[in-house]
TrEMBL record, chains A, B:
Annotated TM spans: none
Keyword entries, A-Z: Carboxypeptidase, Endoplasmic reticulum, Glycoprotein, Golgi apparatus, Hydrolase, Lysosome, Metal-binding, Metalloprotease, Protease, Secreted, Signal, Zinc, Zymogen
Protein name: Carboxypeptidase Q
Biological source species: Qipengyuania aurantiaca
Entry keyword Signal: yes
Amino acid sequence: MNKSLLALAALSLSVPAHADRADLALESDTIAWDFVEGITTEVGPRMPGTEQEARGRVWAMQWLRANGFANVADEPFDMPTWVRGVETAEVTAPFAQPMAITALSTTTSTGPEGLEAEVVYFPTYADLQAAEEGSLAGKIAFVSHDMRRAQDGSHYGFAGPARWMAPSLAASKGAMATVIRSVGTDSHRVPHTGTTTFAEGVKPTPAGALSNPDADTLERMFARAEGQPIRMKLVMTPRDLGMTRSGNVVGEITGRDPSLPPVLLACHLDSWDLGTGAIDDGAGCGIIAAAAKHVAAQGQPLRTIRVLFAGAEETGLWGSKAYSEAHLDEPIYVGLESDFGADRIWRFETNFTASDSALYAELAASVARFGVAPTRIAATGGADLNLVRDQKGPLIDLQQDGTRYFDLHHTADDTLDKIDPVQLRQNVAVWTAVVGVLANRAEPIVLSSGN
Amino acid sequence: MNKSLLALAALSLSVPAHADRADLALESDTIAWDFVEGITTEVGPRMPGTEQEARGRVWAMQWLRANGFANVADEPFDMPTWVRGVETAEVTAPFAQPMAITALSTTTSTGPEGLEAEVVYFPTYADLQAAEEGSLAGKIAFVSHDMRRAQDGSHYGFAGPARWMAPSLAASKGAMATVIRSVGTDSHRVPHTGTTTFAEGVKPTPAGALSNPDADTLERMFARAEGQPIRMKLVMTPRDLGMTRSGNVVGEITGRDPSLPPVLLACHLDSWDLGTGAIDDGAGCGIIAAAAKHVAAQGQPLRTIRVLFAGAEETGLWGSKAYSEAHLDEPIYVGLESDFGADRIWRFETNFTASDSALYAELAASVARFGVAPTRIAATGGADLNLVRDQKGPLIDLQQDGTRYFDLHHTADDTLDKIDPVQLRQNVAVWTAVVGVLANRAEPIVLSSGN
């Protein structure tokens, strides 16, 4: 530990202002749970651009108003919408059996009759990269690149290319379809969906993710087939609906001085269709709204606190982009996002750690008693903070424990029962402490000139 | 602990005969894994009465012959076959969202258009019992009776009636369909299938099990609906195929004295269609076959060891019944079954604990070093031991740890990755020790006159 971190550790021992309400949140917050329990029960899945997402916005606006937020609004935008159809997979030879699969957006349909072809096995994305051009003509590529647990979620970056890029790469080498091992750390028959992107000039194909147990089985088939070709039949019939309407829901706790730039707290309201959007990201919206309410409860803050429940994050950050376009000339004081589940916050990062060390130290002190450690890593902000990034403004990342996040991420298993109410309250406590400091601070945040 | 159990404990300290091979199995058995890995990979689901089950028999016979078993045969029988169709459920009002459901055998079809009706909530089976006659006319009954973990699996008996009997009871009170909370202890979106029985005179209806997270959501809907009716649409299209062919696969390690009654080791080869039949019951067949081979490897046993891989257990113990009918006049020395997953054996029971205490003590001593404790509970034998029960013969139950068994039981999640190879080997070791004693014992087993 270097000297400045030791100094921070010493600072942490003094109890900061606004402690009472954060401590209370830790003990007894019910607001975050009420939000996530309510939206998962009364709305359920909220697929971007669909009527279900629109129902989610109506529900969320009603909830914000009932919870005392001002200036509640739905700021509409249009975005390209993809919806799931039928999806089945089966190995047809030599070891016929069905497999659990889910289509990736924005892949194409096999047609209702499906397609059947020989499968070519690539243990990793690098193996697919090494395949010769044209070698996959008329074949289905199987990329089994696997993901491991990491507290900071960093293996998403390591395993993610199998989903983000393999279908395009396989298509460019002639594949008629791609199946990947789910980008996920569980062992359940619930495949992980998500987006994939076809490179310019590459014709999109059908592509889906097998559950991890199914990918294991398919690997074992290759080990047992002794060179016999393994054939698979895929039926996946997703559809593009063209441009449809989504929207960003906003609400505010108005500050004593509305001329000061607001504190922006972000999450996303949409979810994948397979689950009910509990950890991704109903919990995040509940956490930020609960924190805003707790801060308001200890006296009207100096600055306005704005919550942004972004729309259509999952299929391309459409809400984040639309919000930035619409509000680029309205300065934001600082941006924070909650979008990594509901497990405890263990670390925090800013992009002003060196340039505004006084504020950094004050924040570190405010969260130390909740078990949150400072780091030197630079915050980059979450997906729905495009506005603040585009403004080159201050960012804080309150990092949640992601050890089990990718067990559930983008699956049917993203449901309320996966949220631990005790850890959810710890999130609210940390956010309450941090937002309490920020919303009552008059001074601008000093960023280094590099920002 | 009473005196006789203390005496047993003392006996356990002496190392019994046939120890070497059991110890070797504990360290290094690969036979059981080879069986269950092979059948789940090369065959997969083996639904009773279907072509997939028939493929399983062909595969198993080939495996038995390749592994040195004699008298390998498929003993055919006919049984009524039910197969799954489409299955979807959705709440349509007031909180529209899809739910994960699976049909129970041998329920009827809703037709492809499905049915939609108001849902009536019963927290437990007792609440359904208390409902007035005729009160469910035109309604869907929802029975949310929940199951808890138990090492000995005994809560299956406590929670099971919700599946076994609720659809019939609800139908008798007018319900057009029934949905139950899955009889299972997990929290994943993988509903638990199984059989249900309609009482004589009750017209069968559609009936399915919701996954536990979906049952949770439906309960929360009732808490939030403030008296508004909750409506659900069900589409489930299973079919009865009438009588089709199944079969029992048998194989033998022949003994030095074929005139002596054989030791019968049972499991079942069929599985539900949703998973791949790894813990239920590929593992069981692997364990008993591995034990038979290990015993044979230490010298030809006195008695023949017969393995029975029963067919069509899941939908009504058809194989067990057929086997008993066909072989009732052929005495069996003792019967044992493995059909409770692949986790470690922790306890054992016989139906001759008092009447043949010498053998009981010898068996107790043979397994003590593997962490298996004696009990006074009377063995009743597994589902596929009808023959031995019908003969009123000796039974031994080697009880596996069932703590997590009902997380997986009858779900899509019954796949190979759920088997712990270390615990699987402990099973083989215990079976090797016990079968080694039994197959080399000349004396008849003394049963009390009550048997």
